[in-house]
Amino acid sequence: MELPLSRYQNISLGQILDSSSSSAFDSKAFFFSGSQLYWTNGRKRSTSFSPLRCSLVKQTLRPKPNYKPSKPHEDTEEKTNIKHTKENKFSFGLCDQIEKLVFKRRYQEALELFDFLEIEDGHGVTSSTYDSLVNACIGAKSIKGVKRVTNHMFNNGFVPDQYMSNRVLLMHVRCNMLMDARILFDEMPQRNLVSWNIMIAGLVDVGDYVEAYRLFLTMWSEYSEADSRTFATMIRATAGLGLLYPGRQLHSCVLKMGVSDDIFVACALIDMYSKCGSIEDAQFVFDAMPQKTTVGWNTIIAGYALHGYSEEALSLYYEMQDANVPMDHFTFSIVVRICARLGSLEHAKQAHASLVRHGFSLDTVANTTLIDLYSKWGRIEDARNVFDRMPCKNLISWNALIAGYANHGRGEDAVELFDKMLCEGMRPNHVTFLAVLSACSNLGLSDRGWDIFYSMDSIHNINPRAMHYACMIELLGREGLLDEALALIRNAPFEPTMNMWAALLTACRIHKNLELGVFAAEKLYGMGPEKLSNYIVLLNIYNNMGKMEEAASVIHNLKQKGLRLLPSCTWIEIKKQSHAFCSGDKSHAQTKEIYQYLDGLLVEISKHGYVPENRYLLPDVDEKEEHMLLYHSEKLAVTFGLMNTPDYVPLQLVQSHRICHDCHNALKLISKVKDREIVVRDASKFHHFKNGSCSCGDY
DNA sequence: GTAGGGTTAG
């Protein structure tokens, strides 16, 4: 499987840095942080980092109202003296309490107590209390707290040493105040390796990998400083960029510096190699780990899973168990996801049970994966149960269930859940809208769809993307509003995408508008001349219209480019035994019975109005294979994103129902399949079938 | 002398 970022593999870091004009530091976005006044020990400021930016900082620095001291001092000599004596005692007690609360991880309470310290004179506050307050802010992720603590230090003339400077920097980074953190960092009178590491890690955390690299290269070239922590962070940045070549360079540096045995570095390397497309290198690093930790195992298992090697990933998980390595919530999240991909309900149930047994039944990520897993199997009530029992739901959890409902014909529930989500104050994102618009589309709720579509920008401040447009086009198309759908494409604030034209094309096929259909198909054909699906769609349309000359020209073009249809694959699990099927392959021992069953199902769905399209698929297709190809043609459409369907299709005949919009009967079919303990899934991403080699039998 | 690093979900 080609990884999405593998196209960058041959690009050097230099090219990335040169070509990137993006910077996290937009001069307009600067705001007052107090840093220039904060570092007061008189050391010369460094100008080696973006002098231009520093001058911008000076130009644009202006105090923000909420950054001012909360209680200005009344500094008459007499009052100060009296208060100082009284409050020192008071402050000491208070400081002590704050430190104790932070030690007990009661961060919010500690910050509340800090209120009293703010009101009074804080000259007696020591580094130790500030250190605790830093932990409180980080623990509570409180931006307000960061500002209060920083101001308190400044107002009370506290001069931080190197240690406290780094702690303050860390506090800003961990509370997602990257702009402030960067200003603090640039203005620091003195930095050490820890300061650099904190700043670089902060940039990596927010995904600004290029800027992290810039900083790292500056550090490396000017100071020749870096340790295992720096490398672990930079390897993570490389993984984020998907750059194998710089990743290898970092690996070399790690070896030369003798920090390759560091567990953090090893785990980061495994992850980096996995994400950059080299699972062999990941395995090599894993094998070389002197001590294989939980994170190490998690990372290599996730790596195999990422590459589609689900069985290998699962056997590694069993190896991990045999090695008595403790498992954590990461392990179970990864394993549940693997089971979802494997399409094995048996494995999934075991993973779910293990998760509960090991005490991770409350974990948000693992539970969200379970929701996704059960939804994809159509076990939507199980998904709902998991969701309802979750003590802490985040946006992804909501999205998973809404999408689950939408993809299984439970549009009403999806829209209802979307409304509930808004009522509970959860802010939707573009994924939420994709799911809920898809639900509206399935239900034929064009008015509600429009309302939701418009609300994206007007209420939720989210610009609809091409996929949202495609959803709306599908919705309008199903209602037969082809002109409206075409107008939406033409009025889109960006170039229409293939998905948008494909949605229109589907609508044209449903409503037999061949002229608009051919227009859409030709657009598609022009947009992706190397995409096989576009040839097929156009070919089908020409054939349906009786335009034989045009059809012949498409076939000619197809042959010239050497494109051909690879066999489609599906496999099913029946009573814990998996069976794979490819187009035209009849080597299975029960081929005859299977075909009889499929024919029976076809007859059954035909009773509900399904009419197979006339297909003149491709040249050189054996007549005997045509029957098989018929079953796979919808799947092909799904694979190429021509229809809005879930990744894993319970039964491809269900797709036929979706084509004629008979969700009710599609669901009836799904439950019928479930009763027989049959699970069918799309095999197109599975490694056994890479390079078109399909085989039945063992698997 | 303190502080900074790695893996998961839609």
From TrEMBL:
One GO BP annotation is: RNA modification
PPR repeat positions: 126-160, 192-222, 293-327, 328-362, 363-393, 394-428
Q: Which NCBIfam families match?
A: PPR
Family to which the UniProt record says this protein belongs: Belongs to the PPR family. PCMP-H subfamily.
Tell me the ranges covered by the DYW domain, including all copies: 609-699
Where do the segments described as Disordered lie? 62-81
> Which Gene3D superfamilies does the protein's record reference?
Tetratricopeptide repeat domain
Keywords tagged on the record: Repeat, Transit peptide
Name the residue ranges with Basic and acidic residues bias. Answer: 71-81
Q: Name one GO molecular function term.
A: zinc ion binding
Annotated protein name in UniProt? DYW domain-containing protein
Annotated InterPro entries: DYW_dom, E_motif, PPR_At4g14850-like_plant, PPR_rpt, TPR-like_helical_dom_sf
Say yes or no: keyword Transit peptide present. Answer: yes
